[in-house]
Amino acid sequence: MSFRCQACGYRSPKWLGRCPQCGEYGTFAEEKETPSSIPPELVAPEPPKPLPEVPAPPPERLSTGMPEVDRVLGGLVPGAVVLFGGEPGIGKSTLLLELAANIADRYGKVLYVSGEEAPSQVKLRAQRLGRESPNLYLLSTQDLLAILNAVSRVAPVALVVDSLQTVLADPQGGEVGSLAQVRESAAQLSRVAKTAGILTFLVSHITKEGGFAGPKTVEHLVDVAVYLEGIREGDLRILRCVKNRYGSTAEVAVLEMTGKGLVEVPNPSLFFVSKEATPRPGTAIVPVLEGTRTLLVEVQALVTPSGGYGPPQRRMAGLDLNRTLVLLAVIEKHLGVHTRALDVYLAVAGGLEVIEPAADLGICAAVLSSLRDRPIPMDTVILGEVGLAGDLRPVRKGPERLQEVAKLGFRRAIVAHQPLPKKLDLEVVRAKTLREGMEALELL
Ligand code: TYD
Ligand code: MG
Asked: Which residue of 131, 132, 257 sits with most ligand 1 atoms within 8 Å of its CB, as the best mutation to test the pocket?
């Protein structure tokens, strides 16, 4: 046992009130003796390994502070380059400012470079969002050199460049926003991200004219590419992954634009179904797949006698026109229901696009429900692909969808003949043909 002065390190075999070396009072504390010889098995519990066999440490995964967004991005690592595409005004800058502030709060400095807005404008938005992180650094420039300079001065954990189309990489390389400039900027920024280990977000606008110098042109340069989509008038946004070096591309996140920025919709399954109490004719609920998510959507039909002049109206919103015209022909041929003198309007509520054939049976049911003015019970979902012969075909991931439907409290499902989950708290009618399906719904 020995005692040591905590001020100067003087050692003594017994406790002293005052240190004889530095003269301080009450600084002696007992010190445990360390064993002089450490047993060899404690020093090296495993035999030494050749370098190639030593496992690399798992890369640290960064979170954006929004679990739904993290799910889509597949877990971010330092040095990853993420492309955020989307139409102007959809909410890219809003979302990235939120993510930047979250990352700044969690991990340290984040540099947000805007080529479109002054720092004061970005600050105003951050205030509105209530995300004024002191670790968030703002810079307004279009000059790639200035961005790189700022990166080396700030040494951020993450970098946001909003947007690629406003970065001038090469003064001799043509206009800002040209294909050459956009590519060069993306390439140089990715290189910096990799060498300095900076998580980098690149924003890119989808231009109205199509893909010119848009996000598609740099997708090959990045690790993860996501798109923010939605109907511009609506509040709902879908973040969809199209490329991911770190995870699956099947995931989507549903976000809602509010007065306080984009917020996650944690259980979006029922988001697209209206919350009305009484069923209305012409409405059918269909469980569609978005990524691995089952979303319930409302297919709405309005069938009315047409004016008489010219061909009847066929208008679709959120559905494929050609596919729907085929379904009307199948209804005509195999159910003997004539729609030739009727206007047919179809829409998917909530602004979602439904292109899955799994919605066929639901579309037919909505049309007949409107035509007969007979509502479909609201506790019923409809699922199945309709063949040209009036037959029904099973859908992809049918059992998973039905499981989710049962969980959400629906009582009945009219589906194509297909495998069912073993335990299912749902009354399921398996129909072989369109006619059988419509009979089960009492629509014939
Ligand atoms: P923005 O992020 O600027 O879109 P992008 O960068 O993709 O062009 O979003 C613009 C729209 O979002 C704008 O019409 C205003 C709206 N908005 C809100 O509704 N709530 C908010 O909190 C914010 C910041 C924006
Ligand atoms: Mg913007």
From this structure: 257
